[in-house]
Amino acid sequence: MKQFSRLDFLAGSTASAGLLAATSWTVGDEKPSQSPNEKLNIAVIGSGGRGGSNLKNVSSQNITVLCDVNQQNLSRAATSHPKARRELDFRRVFDAEKEFDAVVVSTCEHTHAFATLPALQLKKHVYCEKPLTHSVYEARVIREAAEKAGVATQMGTQIHAGNNYRRVVELIQSGTIGPVRECHVWVGRAWGRQSAADAKKNRDIVHVEERPTTADPIPENLNWDLWLGP
User: Fold this and answer.
1) 135 pLDDT exceeds 90?
2) Is residue 210 predicted with pLDDT exceeding 90?
3) Closest by CA position to 89, among listed 58, 46, 54
C-alpha cells in the first residue's frame, strides 16, 4: 500500500498515479458484482457520529466493508454487520476493491477528499459528507476524477437535496423572482460556543464559553495518527 500525503494530493497527476498504483486497478479488471436490480455492495468509511446515521440509511444494502479510526465505533457498527470486513485505515479499504460497488465517506472533515479520490479512481459510486474537500484545489481534483469515472456521486448537504431547496434554485435560475441582489442567512444554533443552559435548551451535546487552555487526552479507542490523516 503506497503512502500519500496532502502534498502528494496537491501535486495532481503525481497523486493520481500513486493512488492507481496503490490499488492495482485497470479498466479491464472492472466487473459489476451484480445486476442493477440487486442490492449494492457498500463500503462505509466512518461509522460513528454522522457516519452512524449514514450507515443506518444504507443498511438495506449489503455492507461489505466497515472502516473507522475509532475502534469503539467500528465494533459498534460490526454488531449490525458482522460479516463486513473491518479496517481502521481507510486506505486498506481499497486493497480489495471488488468487494464493493459504492463508498459512503463520513470521516473527519479534513480526510474527505483522501477517502473519496481513490474510490472515484476505481469507478465506485460515492456519497461523501460535507465539506467535500479541504481546499478549492482538492475540489477541482475530485471534480475531474468524478467526470472521468462517470459514476453516481452526491455530497451530503441533506437539506439542500430536498424538494423545497431544489424548487428555490429553479425559481432563481429561471428568473421567476427577478435578479437576486441580496441574501440574508442566519443560524439558530450555536454549535458548541454557548453556555451549558443554552446547550440544554438547544438539545446540543457540546457547550463551551471560553477557549480551552489545556489539551484533552487522546481517547484510548482512537488511532490518533490515522485521525490526523495524510
Assistant:
1) yes
2) no
3) 46
> Residue 176's pLDDT is what?
95
Query: Is residue 98 scored above 50 in pLDDT?
Result: yes
Paired sense of beta strands 125-128 and 41-45, if any = unpaired
> End-to-end distance of the chain based on CA atoms, in angstroms?
14
Residues 101-140, buried b or exposed e (16+ Cβ, 10 A)? Answer: bbbbbbbeebbbbbbbbbbbbbbbbbbbbebbbbeeebee
Closest CA to 16 of 120, 102, 131, 128: 120
- On the question of pLDDT at 174 being above 90, the answer is yes
Tally of structural domains, the chain: 1
Domain presence at residue 98: yes
Average pLDDT over all residues of the chain: 84
Domain containing 68 equals 6-159
Which grid cell is 26?
Answer: 485497470
Structure-derived torsion over alpha carbons of residues 221, 126, 57, 75, reported in degrees to the nearest 10: -20
Please tell me the predicted confidence (pLDDT) of residue 160. 81
Decide if 138 is inside a domain.
yes
Q: Quick one: cell of 222? A: 482512537
- Model confidence pLDDT, tens digit, residues 104-114: 999 999 999 99
Question: For the domain that residue 114 is a member of, what is the CATH number?
Answer: 3.40.50.720
